[in-house]
């Protein structure tokens, strides 16, 4: 076994005993006499409510026997695969968690990292969109069959007949599978040291060291999940790492969140629980403090996330933003408070964007940060409140609608104001009509780095809530500066060059003056 793929065997609270043939499975509550057992896990799409699941009413019966004929096809296929792999036990969430017991669900969700990391292998039913679809059916779609391919008959040891295809080029294009769009499955894909992936066109094997397939491209990193899995399994994200580059670790966490928020969730309350296993594993390796989807040591830079749809909406008005959930889920400063995909502004991008611009010796400070958990059993799960207090540069401005877009405007400064982009967080956070000039919203801009920050509105007398992200362009390149540096064949280019050079210098002075007007205050955000 690869050194990077070694894991300690685990003993989940419950597993399914498939027996020798898988025909009479039963739920097996483990105990100390079992010791550390060898088991596999199933990762799959539910696709709706499960007809067969463990509840307090069915628990006693399932300990005796689970009705195989009532199980959905995906679970039956998983039991069959477990037997073929020579394993006796398999962990399946619908059957191994008491689904009508909130305490049991919280406890088992918190144990997800240990359950999936301790498994001998995780069976990923990638091609199955629902639990009734199954994943062991014949694969009819063989992709592109070129003239140079050879199809040969084949029989396995049991006499089953099939075909082997020989080709000079890969037969299959990299494609997205149903599991790649489900939020809950991301942490199962990332935490499992070994994955056996049953795709719609081929079978993959993946561990933290290598990958292979039964045809086509062998490098799993060419796939969507392969890229993020490779990122997660590199040394900076593993327990035995010697790497101490915190910024790199933060960038990897943000990449995981970006992937996660693009996936679908059935229940709005699942936003934080469905990524809690990755958060627990991340914290266990680095001993960081977790605050509703963000890490305390990364504040306030990790507040620089924005709604990806809001950015895309600037060029495509047909794109609509989601509303914030009606039930409280996370503080407004957390990405978990909205349902749309988010994107972080990387720290290296701060530097690249502001290279050569006006630099300030400025460092905002997180004074306090705290969240109240719904349950202490789930320290990375649901929260019922969250507050941060930050000392930073702030400036009162107005948010106004300019044609289709919302723009920030400083009514108390008459000099040149740099172009600004505003991306609102959710659909109902800001609504302004453009019928009249007086339709504007007073906001408070809080500066995180020189040209970027967050936009706040008053929640109560002493605190604010976040409604968006802003970005200024403090560089003074003018669209007419093409004159600068042209060969001076006549006096006109020289005069134009001098004119625009002076204009750029004036704008520089105005921006520097304007930035100097920002005051330092301590702000509470909920």
What is this structure's SSE topology?
Elements: E1 14-17, E2 26-29, E3 39-43, H1 59-64, H2 73-84, E4 89-91, H3 93-96, H4 102-110, H5 112-117, E5 121-124, E6 150-155, E7 161-166, H6 183-191, E8 194-198, E9 203-207, E10 211-213, H7 224-233, H8 246-261, H9 276-286, E11 290-291, E12 294-295, E13 305-307, H10 308-313, E14 342-344, H11 347-354, E15 365-373, E16 383-402, E17 405-409, E18 420-424, E19 440-449, E20 452-458, E21 464-472, H12 491-516, E22 519-525
Parallel strand pairs: 3-4, 3-5, 5-8
Antiparallel strand pairs: 1-2, 1-4, 6-7, 8-9, 9-10, 11-12, 13-14, 15-16, 16-17, 16-19, 16-22, 18-21, 19-20, 20-21
Helix pairs in contact: 6-9
Descriptive notes:
This protein starts with 13 loop residues before the first strand and ends with a strand. It has 12 helices and 22 strands. Helix content is 23%, strand content 24%. The protein has an 8-stranded mixed beta sheet, sandwiched between helices. Strands 15, 16, 17, 18, 19, 20, 21 and 22 form an 8-stranded antiparallel beta sheet that branches. It has a two-stranded antiparallel ribbon with strand order 6-7. Strand 8 (194-198) and strand 9 (203-207) form a beta hairpin. Helix 6 packs parallel to helix 9 (276-286). The chain folds into 2 domains: 8-137 and 172-264, no CATH class; 288-525, no CATH class.
